[in-house]
Amino acid sequence: MRVEQNNSAVTYSGNWSNNGMTKHSGSSAALSVDKGSRATFRFTGTAAKWIGFKDGWSGIARVYVDGSYKREVNTYASVDAARAVLYSITGLKSGSHTLTIEVTGRKSSASGGAWIWVDAFEYTSGGTTTTATTTTSLSGKSLKTSGTLSSLT
């Protein structure tokens, strides 16, 4: 499922700006250049992706999952790339998680800036199991069925 950057599941600390361009998912994205600024996505599932924008002015971000540092991501690109998957993680235990993007204020030598873009997030929800009981009337008699329904979304 895709969650836009302005959804209530995404919280921000530090200084972030909004950028409206039709090339972004949902026609807008958040961006920051201020070291220590963070965007945190809260989700329930087993996998997640950070979707962003890459260009000649993009910098380096740190990524954390459930508060644990994972790696740095250099988002610089010589050619603009909208709606790019900048980080993904799979294999998480089904449950509540956070994916945090932190602005480092650093950039590669080729980049003209250190901007970090948050366009959207995607996540895979975990499997759920629901037990259902149904009673149906058939010509004055009752048929009761019970079973387990499993779904992955």
Notable characteristics:
disordered C terminus, 153 residues, 5-stranded antiparallel sheet, globular, 4-stranded antiparallel sheet, mainly beta
Structure description:
The protein has no helices and 14 strands. The protein is mainly β and 153 residues long. The strands form four sheets. The protein has a five-stranded antiparallel beta sheet, with no helix packed on it. Strand 7 and strand 8 form a beta hairpin.
The percentage of residues in β strands lies in over 45%
Instruction: Let me know the largest β-sheet.
Output: 5 strands, antiparallel
Terminus-to-terminus distance: 8 Å
Helix percentage range: under 10%
Q: What is the helix/strand order?
A: EEEEEEEEEEEEEE
Uncertain segments: 128-153
The order of strands across the largest sheet is 2-5-10-7-8
Radius of gyration from the alpha-carbon trace, in angstroms: 21 Å
Q: What's the total count of β strands? A: 14
Question: Overall mean pLDDT score?
Answer: 87
Give the CA-based shape: globular
Number of helices: 0
| Content-based structural category | mainly beta
Task: Give a brief description.
With 153 residues, the chain is mostly beta strands. The protein has strands at residues 2-4, 10-13, 17-20, 28-32, 38-45, 47-54, 60-65, 68-74, 81-89, 95-106, 116-118, 120-124, 128-138, 141-151.
Task: Present the secondary structure layout.
Layout: E1 2-4, E2 10-13, E3 17-20, E4 28-32, E5 38-45, E6 47-54, E7 60-65, E8 68-74, E9 81-89, E10 95-106, E11 116-118, E12 120-124, E13 128-138, E14 141-151
